């Protein structure tokens, strides 16, 4: 059996082949993807396969995306629907979103990360729908069966999102972050998580939710920087029928759906001052007012927010409200980027290698020493997300169960300047010391570090000894002696 058979199935409907392939590449790591160039083919595919989510471009020949998704709603109501459009302010789109029961619409030009997050949320909605169907069966079976199934699902979620499952090396800087997060999880404080994109802020938030007294409640996610303010307000707080043109039915916002649970607001630093005022009122009053409603609705949620920006700097610059900042930052966690915890690179890479190999249906693989040296020597500006992409590429292009340095992209081999390399070496040998070998005498450990640095430099400089000697401050004779000493003389 192909391991990918267990992945959710997503159908992309777009008459432009280039757009189809771009979405396929974005989604293919986490989902099985089918594509259709017109709605006739799309109907056949939905009829034959158990599709979880369908993404449809609005401008389609013969039938608009909204019209097709209305039909999908009628014939296959369990399929979650997403429309893609370049017309953000079109009243037709807003009206169609409600009439066709659209989960969300994505604006062009779409951002791969946002598209992936949107589809992940849609898949969760699809799974929730199927879960509700199972719930109906459980209710018929009796309360004991219901409680047993609920406890089973909770145990499974806690096992996946436990703090101990956040991969890191022994003595990692993340140990302190996770320990603090675990203590904070027990209390109903708002938490602000700071860190660069791709460092795993959402994973940390999920772990906090499942370690909290709210673990039986929902955990919902919204990327605040991915959609316009008008839609963000409706998405979070809901709207009433007739609130605006196209609002043909009531819409329940995420805060109401998360009642009793946790709302994770990602990229909170991207919101406008006008929206910040509305969010502040919600946090102060503990109630939301759906768009077009005269009545406030009480909600019981915990808010965890995250951003790649330093919000204190944004407050000083007048771009973020100070009062909202203090409401969100009941406690603050700073997730360090991957380059500041080099000891975590290899454990994270090993974990990703196993996961990606299963997703791609590949046999188990491992890294050779040169590949390890290259990964440790690269600064990873895109953090764990970039590391995952490189491993996926290496598995797809590599030959056999052993991944080599040459299977990585060229930027990993040539992505550092001499200054960056010097800084990296300083991190490896000083600072945290996380990359030091775990055993041996002082000299043996220093030799291991020296061999690793030599290997990384030679690979990055394509075995050019003149350039390597200059960067390392050695003569060619001295460099050759060291390469011979550590068995690195041959490429």
TrEMBL record:
For this protein, the record's InterPro entries field holds:
AAA+_ATPase (IPR003593), AAA_lid_NorR (IPR058031), CheY-like_superfamily (IPR011006), Homeodomain-like_sf (IPR009057), HTH_Fis (IPR002197), P-loop_NTPase (IPR027417), Sig_transdc_resp-reg_receiver (IPR001789), Sigma_54_int (IPR002078)
Entry-linked SMART domains? AAA (SM00382), REC (SM00448)
All residue ranges annotated as the Response regulatory domain in the record: 9-123
Spell out which residues are annotated as carrying 4-aspartylphosphate. 57
Work out whether the entry's keyword set contains Phosphoprotein. yes
Per the record's keyword annotation, is Transcription included, yes or no? Answer: yes
Q: Which residues form a coiled coil?
A: none
Cite the GO molecular-function annotations of the record: ATP binding; sequence-specific DNA binding
The protein, known as: Sigma-54-dependent Fis family transcriptional regulator
Q: Which organism is it from?
A: Ideonella dechloratans
All copies of the Sigma-54 factor interaction domain together span: 167-396
Q: Which UniProt keywords apply?
A: ATP-binding, DNA-binding, Nucleotide-binding, Phosphoprotein, Transcription, Transcription regulation
According to its UniProt entry, the protein's GO biological process terms are: phosphorelay signal transduction system; regulation of DNA-templated transcription
């Amino acid at each position: 059996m192909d391991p990918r058979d267990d992945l959710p199935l997503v159908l992309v409907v777009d008459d432009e082949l280039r757009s189809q392939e771009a979405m396929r590449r974005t989604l293919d790591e986490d989902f099985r993807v089918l594509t259709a160039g017109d709605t006739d083919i799309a109907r056949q595919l939905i009829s034959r396969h158990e599709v979880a989510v369908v993404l449809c471009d609005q401008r389609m020949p013969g039938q608009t995306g909204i019209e097709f998704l209305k039909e999908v709603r009628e014939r296959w109501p369990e399929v979650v629907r997403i429309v893609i459009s370049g017309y953000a302010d079109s009243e037709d789109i807003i009206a169609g979103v409600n009439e066709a029961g659209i989960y969300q619409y994505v604006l062009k030009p779409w951002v791969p990360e946002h598209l992936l997050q949107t589809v992940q949320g849609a898949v969760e909605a699809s799974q929730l729908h199927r879960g509700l169907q199972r719930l109906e069966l459980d209710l018929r079976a009796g309360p004991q069966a219901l409680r047993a199934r609920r406890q089973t699902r909770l145990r499974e979620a806690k096992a996946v999102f436990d703090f101990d499952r956040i991969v890191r090396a022994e003595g990692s800087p993340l140990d302190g972050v996770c320990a603090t997060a675990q203590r904070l999880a027990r209390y109903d404080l708002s938490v602000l998580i700071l860190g660069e994109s791709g460092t795993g802020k959402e994973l940390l938030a999920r772990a906090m939710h499942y370690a909290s007294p709210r673990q039986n409640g929902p955990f919902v996610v919204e990327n605040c920087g991915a959609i316009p303010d008008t839609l963000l307000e409706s998405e979070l707080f809901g709207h009433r029928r007739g609130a605006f043109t196209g609002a043909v039915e009531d819409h329940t916002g995420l805060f109401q759906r998360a009642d009793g649970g946790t709302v994770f607001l990602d990229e909170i630093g991207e919101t406008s001052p006008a929206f910040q005022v509305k969010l502040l009122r919600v946090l102060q009053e503990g109630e939301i007012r759906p768009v077009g409603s005269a009545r406030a609705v009480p909600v019981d949620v915990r808010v965890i927010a995250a951003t790649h920006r330093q919000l204190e700097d944004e407050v000083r610059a007048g771009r973020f409200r100070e009062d909202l900042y203090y409401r969100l930052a009941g406690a603050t966690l700073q997730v360090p980027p991957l380059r500041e915890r080099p000891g975590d690179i290899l454990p994270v890479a090993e974990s990703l290698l196993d996961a990606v190999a299963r997703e791609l249906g590949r046999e188990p693989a491992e890294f050779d020493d040169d590949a390890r040296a290259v990964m440790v020597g690269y600064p990873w500006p895109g953090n764990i997300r970039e590391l995952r992409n490189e491993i996926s590429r290496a598995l797809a292009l590599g030959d056999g169960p052993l991944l080599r340095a040459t299977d990585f992209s060229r930027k990993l081999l040539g992505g550092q300047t001499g200054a960056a390399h010097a800084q990296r070496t300083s991190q490896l040998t000083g600072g945290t010391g996380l990359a030091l070998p775990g055993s041996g005498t002082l000299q043996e450990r220093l030799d291991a570090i020296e061999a690793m640095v030599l290997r990384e430099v030679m690979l990055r400089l394509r075995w050019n000894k003149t350039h390597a000697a200059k960067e390392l401050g050695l003569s060619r004779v001295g460099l050759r002696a060291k390469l011979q000493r550590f068995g690195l003389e041959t490429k």
